């Protein structure tokens, strides 16, 4: 049972969305803008955890889709000349220059090349500390990079939000959540927050996952079996992130997790808000445009093509592809092909824009299937294909 609206020419997207959700026990939403107008606004499923009502206005934690939202905040500053991608981070955040980081640029930080992919093993940052902004930012400012910045990439899954977020805070004097509200959510009328007000709590539908993800010991054993030295500092730090993951996901289902600002993962929104935000990055939406065409062109320039992982993780295949804070199309996340920019989120969330077709997409779900590490989420494939057909792509 799918509710909602599709414009003429996009009828196949409705049935394709239904097909993709056939075996999903959770709720899902899909919203598509084209040339600044809504052409798809659909929802289906329900909430098997709390039993709350599920519709197009329901809210969910967006996991790493949050990174694309935070990147948009950063590029608004670039657009206004308040932030330069080729400038050293320490120009805006002086304490960041400690421990050999004086030359790290804003571009390297945004594109997961800064060498700070996980907290140091001895920093004492676990799941509960993720809500402590000062502790996380101080740990990163004083940290020696895990590899020479700029020479390799590795996904900064937790740390990226504090790095980009503190940069935004230093430039604007506002937290990322406050800046997001003032410059994006309020002007566009979005149901989108980083730091959810308690008044919005009843609309939040819990996320859940039935799949069992490998724990720290299993990942360590797999790495060791691949000939990787698990006692290396980079590997120990990475395993710390693995150990934090499940507890962190549990935290993000709590009021404390909703109220905090964790820009790498706890934006709370619906598909309508995500699609509308991305639509306003590539064109005007009801009189609001967030980024100029020139800034979009710069923001989606590939930054990691040709780079490998740092040693000793250089034995692992590279599965990510980054621009300036946004993900680019790759086998795991094809989006609408080359030119697309956005971000997926653990468990199947997805939001992106494709300037060449004037399209912006938001997909939100509550069932964290865990498939995004091995290939495109099978729930996306039918409606992405139907959308491409509708666009003549």
Q: What's the name of the CATH homologous superfamily? A: DD-peptidase/beta-lactamase superfamily
CATH fold label: Beta-lactamase
- Radius of gyration, whole Å: 20 Å
Strand order of the largest sheet: 1-3-2-10-9-8-7
CATH class: Alpha Beta
Helix content: 25-40%
Number of strands: 10
Multimeric state of these chains?
single chain
Class inferred from helices and paired strands: alpha+beta
Main β-sheet, in a few words?
7 strands, antiparallel
In terms of DSSP E residues, the strand content is: 5-15%
Describe this structure in words.
This protein is about 35% helix and about 10% strand. It has about 400 residues and is an alpha+beta fold. Strands 1-3-2-10-9-8-7 form a seven-stranded antiparallel sheet, with helices on both faces. The longest helix has 19 residues, at about 235-250. The chain is globular.
Structure summarized in a few sentences:
One of its GO terms (molecular function) is hydrolase activity. It comes from Nocardia callitridis. The protein has helices spanning 11-20, 65-79, 106-110, 133-141, 159-172, 176-188, 216-225, 233-251, 255-259, 271-282, 293-299, 381-391, and strands at residues 2-6, 28-34, 37-44, 60-61, 192-193, 268-269, 327-328, 341-345, 349-354, 359-365.
């Amino acid at each position: 049972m799918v509710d909602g609206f599709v414009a003429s020419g996009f009828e196949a997207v409705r049935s394709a969305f239904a097909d993709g959700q056939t075996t999903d026990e959770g709720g899902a939403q899909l919203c598509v803008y084209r040339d600044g107008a809504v052409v798809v606004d659909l929802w289906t499923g329900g909430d098997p955890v709390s039993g709350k009502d599920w519709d197009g206005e329901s809210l969910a934690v967006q996991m790493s889709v949050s990174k694309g939202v935070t990147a948009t905040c950063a590029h608004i500053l670039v657009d206004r000349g308040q932030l330069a991608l080729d400038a050293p981070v320490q120009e805006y955040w002086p304490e960041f220059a400690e421990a050999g980081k004086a030359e790290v640029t804003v571009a390297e930080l945004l594109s997961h090349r800064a060498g700070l992919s996980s907290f140091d093993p001895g920093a004492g940052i676990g799941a509960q500390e993720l809500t402590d902004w000062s502790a996380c930012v101080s740990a990163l400012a004083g940290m020696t990079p895990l590899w020479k910045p700029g020479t390799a990439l590795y996904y900064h899954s937790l740390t990226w939000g504090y790095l980009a977020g503190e940069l935004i805070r230093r430039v604007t004097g506002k937290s990322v959540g406050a800046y997001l509200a003032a410059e994006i959510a309020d002007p566009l009328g979005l149901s989108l927050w980083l730091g959810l007000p308690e008044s919005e709590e009843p609309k939040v539908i819990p996320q859940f996952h039935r799949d069992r993800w490998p724990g720290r010991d299993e990942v360590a054993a797999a790495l060791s079996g691949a000939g990787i030295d698990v006692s290396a500092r980079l590997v120990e730090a990475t395993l710390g992130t693995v150990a934090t993951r499940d507890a962190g996901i549990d935290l993000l289902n709590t009021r404390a997790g909703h109220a905090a600002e964790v820009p790498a993962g706890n934006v709370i929104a619906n598909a309508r808000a995500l699609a509308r935000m991305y639509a306003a990055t590539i064109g005007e939406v009801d009189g609001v445009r967030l980024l100029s065409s020139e800034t979009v062109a710069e923001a989606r320039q590939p930054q990691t093509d040709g780079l490998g992982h740092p040693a000793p993780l250089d034995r692992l295949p590279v599965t990510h592809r980054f621009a300036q804070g946004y993900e680019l199309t790759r086998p795991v996340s094809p989006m609408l092909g080359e030119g697309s920019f956005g971000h997926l989120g653990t468990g199947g969330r997805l939001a992106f824009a494709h300037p060449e077709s004037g399209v912006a997409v938001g997909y939100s779900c509550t069932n964290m299937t865990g498939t995004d590490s091995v290939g495109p989420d099978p729930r996306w494939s039918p409606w992405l294909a139907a959308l491409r057909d509708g666009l003549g792509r």
